[in-house]
């Protein structure tokens, strides 16, 4: 999936996750989830995040694309490290990172959620950057805006 799709799904997951957990600040939670949702593609040397942070990309290019960084292990490790600082920071990071994995699992390339322990791949039917992805991205955009507005309206 493309950068923008992940970002939107991260924001949306953040809003939903905050509702589910009953956290106080939906926008902060969604913002943290949005940042976390674009992290996993640093394993892709040519992804948007890596182009902005070349030193990271070089180090992480030793991990193959959609390998370990696209497994469930990094978000869980991050969660257990961050929870020592703040519960909501840890939860938002987990939600955002997991949203990335969910979206990639729906693509034809899929992900390997337990890599490198178990190499089973989960894949869907959406081709990256295809018309289907663009339709999904548009739907995510509409939903994210609708959610943001409904949250803003609650304060008015
Ligand atoms: Zn990815």
Which terms would index this structure?
single chain; 156 residues; mainly alpha; globular; binds zinc ion
Distance between the termini: 36 Å
Bin the strand percentage. Answer: under 5%
Helix-and-strand structural type? mainly alpha
Radius of gyration of CA atoms, rounded to a whole number: 16 Å
Summarize model confidence as the mean pLDDT: 89
Please describe what this structure looks like.
The protein has 156 residues and is an all-alpha fold. The chain has one domain (3-155). Helix content is 63%, strand content 0%. It has seven helices and no strands. Helix 1 packs parallel to helix 7 and helix 5 (73-82) runs antiparallel to helix 6. It is globular and about 50 Å long. The protein starts with a helix and ends with a helix. Bound molecules: zinc ion (ZN). The site of zinc ion has 5 residues, from helix 6.
